[in-house]
Write a structure and sequence with these properties.
By secondary structure, the protein is an alpha+beta fold. The protein is built from eleven helices and twelve strands. It has one domain: 3-Layer(aba) Sandwich (Beta-lactamase). An eight-stranded antiparallel beta sheet has the order 3-2-1-12-11-10-9-8, with helices on both faces. Strands 4-7 form a two-stranded antiparallel ribbon. Strand 1 and strand 2 form a beta hairpin. The longest helix has about 40 residues.
Length: about 400
Amino acid sequence: MIRKIVINSLIICVTLGVTLNKVNAQFKADSLTYNLKAAFLKDSLPGLSVVLVNAHKVIYQKNFGYADVGGKVPYTTSTVQNIGSVSKTVIAVALMKAIELKYFTLETDINEILPFKVVNPNQPDSKITIRELANHTSGIIDNPEIYSNSYKFYPKLRSYDSTAFGLLQQLGFGGKVKDTTMKSFFYNYLAQDGKYYSKANFGQGLAGGASTYSNVGSALVAYLIEIKSGLSYADFTSKYILAPLKMAHSGWSVSSVNLKDLARLYYDQSRCFPLYDLLTYPDGGLKTSAADLSKYLMAMINGYHGDKTLLDPVSFKTMFAPQFSKEHPPKNINLTYRNKGIFWNLYTNGTIGHDGDDPGVGTFLFFNPGTGIGGLFLTNKYLPNKQLIVDILVKAASCKP
């Protein structure tokens, strides 16, 4: 009789423990949803998708608002949109794969690969390496007179708000750059006889000596991969990243994804822009969904802990290694908030990630190596300050389940 009572008591305790864990998890999820909804409303976002993952599965997902406000089309984890500079983390993975394939090393001089010579007119004797492109210290910078004009808009594909598009054009998104390939663009931007060549395309300091965030420099890494692989960057990343991760709804151009899945990108809650691509598409042009991006995020978490699906462990270790010493950092960077890996940001709160911005785009992707939990969000409106949503997700990922 005593044995039976003990067994029954253990069963009750185990059942109660499981029930309490479920209740606690549901309470945390409800609290997270409440906080995210408050942020969604505060920032007047059209749509928002949020996902948390561990190394093996999605552990939380929630969607708010609309992919198409006028058509009342809900924003879901399957909604596809541009993700801005989160795309640069894909360049990082592609770069490490290219190094594994022995195309070059991080210390390779870019002039050993390019079919034309790059000379910084402000520092003509300065050598530029791939590492310096990957940590934004190359001295190749974004000339807004050229870079903004390299965006290609498609006003005939579907309706848009002419006022919103007019505002973009006033900001320099005029489509004046007519190149159709990265090959021609980089020649015209970087070669001394190129039609966009200017001192304004370059910084003042020696390569490696000053940090200046560079979309052009980032995309140049992808062009180097194209040269050595004989594949377009889109095909290279499809072969080595998107296809292995079964990211079937992701692509680098409007034509590569299903138009009906694409979110409208908004200036505010009612006025949207035309669809667009980037000429230097590797630096910010990936179009993907929260569902697909969660597969990528899980692969990064697993890779950090030794998984070989995408890269060898040593490549992941190199990609996430701090690039700058505290004693001798380059100019213009404050290591109080973050260091740099190979394109990735190494935040001092212990997380690794990257954010993204573009017209009608606000995104963030990160993971916490200590807890093995990562998160992301996509919204179809530019968000000047992402910190509220970022803080909510970072806090949610800071505790092991």
